[in-house]
Specification:
It contains 7 helices and 2 strands, in the order E-H-H-H-H-H-H-H-E. By secondary structure, it is an all-alpha fold. A two-stranded parallel sheet has the order 1-2. Helix 2 (13-23) packs across helix 3 (33-46).
C-alpha cells in the first residue's frame, strides 16, 4: 500500500500504538499536545520521506497550529524531561551486556546537542523496530504543497 497523505499515516491506530510503546519509557504526558507532536514527528521521520523542516511543517499543519509553536512545544517537552533522552534510550534499548553474555552490538544514542537530531535518531530506531519486529510499513508517495 502507498500512502498519499501524511494524516493517513498519523491516524493509523497500529502505528500510533507502536509509537506509544516505543516512547513510553521517556516519561511524557501522553495526553499533552507536545507528546502528540513528538510522536507524530518520530512516526514521520521513520518513514523517511521528508527532511526535518518538512516534518515540522506537516506535524504543525496536522495539529492546526503554527510551525513555530509546534517546534517550541517539542523542544520544551524534550528539554524538561527528568532524565535526558539519550540516557533513557541507552538504559532500556542498549544496556550493557551482563557478565558472560555474548551478543551483537547495540546501537547507543549519543548525547545530541539538538532536539531535532535526537528525534531523527528515534525515528530511525522506530523504523528499524517496525521493519524487523512488526510488519507494519507502508511506502509514502507524498509531494509537499508548494
Amino acid at each position: 500500500m502507498t500512502i498519499t497523505k501524511a494524516d493517513i499515516l498519523l491516524n493509523d491506530q497500529e502505528i500510533n500504538l507502536l509509537a506509544d510503546l516505543f516512547l513510553a519509557r521517556y516519561g511524557f504526558d501522553r495526553a499533552s499536545l507536545s507528546y502528540r507532536l513528538i510522536r507524530n514527528t518520530v512516526i514521520l521521520i521513520s518513514h523517511g520521506a521528508w527532511d526535518i523542516q518538512e516534518v515540522h511543517e506537516l506535524v504543525a499543519r496536522c495539529a492546526d497550529i503554527e510551525i513555530e509553536r509546534a517546534i517550541a512545544e517539542i523542544q520544551s517537552a524534550v528539554k524538561s524531561l527528568k532524565t535526558p533522552m539519550h540516557e533513557t534510550y541507552n538504559t532500556y534499548y542498549a544496556p550493557p551486556p551482563i557478565e558472560y553474555e555474548l551478543r551483537g552490538e547495540s546501537i547507543k544514542m549519543p548525547e545530541f546537542g539538538k532536539v531535532d537530531d535526537t528525534l531523527q535518531f528515534l525515528g530511525t530506531a522506530f523504523l528499524y523496530l517496525i521493519l524487523t519486529n512488526y510488519n507494519k510499513y507502508e511506502y509514502i508517495d507524498y509531494q509537499p504543497e508548494k
